[in-house]
């Protein structure tokens, strides 16, 4: 029996267009070693795929309702492929092409590309999942279920909420005026990323040492989280690049917030997230002071349960027809948020693929119309891997933005020493 897509998953699927592909990418960089065998990789994926049922399903039109249905056939040669790349520049070019290539709607909405080997013996796996199949946390469950070698460490529970702690719906609506004032009541300047986009994509990556990021956060008078540090790094990078171009506008960032709950089937739950909007404080010249300002904002939003309140609001407005569409359009305006910055907890222990340690994990999510820059981060046991994804025609030189993020991180680390 077919299963209708959730309202959130259906909305995400409907956003797909000639310039928006609708998927995210996880890039796993493996330590040097014996080259992976593509047939062995396909056999391993086929054996483990039943642990992630959405991986064997396609989207069908069931009397006008988009629904999940079991695929008649699964061609692993289509889903698990091999591509050549000799160095990091070629690797980035390959993953940029993958981000611009649509997933085939007639097949299950995922792919795994084995890339390399690079000249130094490293290889990479580029794993794409459509956002209608998985949000960030669910995508990590896909990696754990299908790609990483099995291990005994429990799944990371950061971003997973206790359902018993959920506020009552009345308390959500009682707080709504304050929530709207905090989240949507302070539009920024005209965004430099408010530009038309094409289907082209360019990517760049930077690493932040995870233990040191925690230490920087812990050194502040009011403890800052790793996510606060990430926001400060991105804010510092944008300030540096925009100063280079002669101005520092007031920009807000939209930060997705997981609403997954403990005990749910993460592999089948699809998208369960909301968001908060934060001022990136680009006018603040001191990187540590910017971290403190961002940390104060995130604490206030958490105390107010803003993400869940906004989720309740937009669920209610979804049934309001044109009014709901108008409200969503206002929330998505580039002056409400110039770019989205997401952070997903990845494997918290060392993991491997076919005996090769996964040294680095990165993630990339799509930019959107009038939001030509997208930033996404994922952690492993040692690093916070940050990915920048742009339309290179709208935002050139994405590598310089990654370099600026490295400089911003070094300033935070040096200032807190």
From TrEMBL:
<keyword id="KW-0444">Lipid biosynthesis</keyword>
<keyword id="KW-0012">Acyltransferase</keyword>
<comment type="pathway">
    <text>Glycerolipid metabolism; triacylglycerol biosynthesis.</text>
</comment>
<dbReference type="Pfam" id="PF03007">
    <property type="entry name" value="WS_DGAT_cat"/>
</dbReference>
<dbReference type="Pfam" id="PF06974">
    <property type="entry name" value="WS_DGAT_C"/>
</dbReference>
<comment type="similarity">
    <text>Belongs to the long-chain O-acyltransferase family.</text>
</comment>
<feature type="domain" description="O-acyltransferase WSD1-like N-terminal">
    <location>
        <begin position="5"/>
        <end position="159"/>
    </location>
</feature>
<protein>
    <recommendedName>
        <fullName>diacylglycerol O-acyltransferase</fullName>
        <ecNumber>2.3.1.20</ecNumber>
    </recommendedName>
</protein>
<comment type="pathway">
    <text>Lipid metabolism.</text>
</comment>
<dbReference type="InterPro" id="IPR045034">
    <property type="entry name" value="O-acyltransferase_WSD1-like"/>
</dbReference>
<dbReference type="InterPro" id="IPR023213">
    <property type="entry name" value="CAT-like_dom_sf"/>
</dbReference>
<keyword id="KW-0808">Transferase</keyword>
<dbReference type="InterPro" id="IPR004255">
    <property type="entry name" value="O-acyltransferase_WSD1_N"/>
</dbReference>
<dbReference type="InterPro" id="IPR009721">
    <property type="entry name" value="O-acyltransferase_WSD1_C"/>
</dbReference>
<keyword id="KW-0443">Lipid metabolism</keyword>
<keyword id="KW-0319">Glycerol metabolism</keyword>
<feature type="domain" description="O-acyltransferase WSD1 C-terminal">
    <location>
        <begin position="270"/>
        <end position="412"/>
    </location>
</feature>
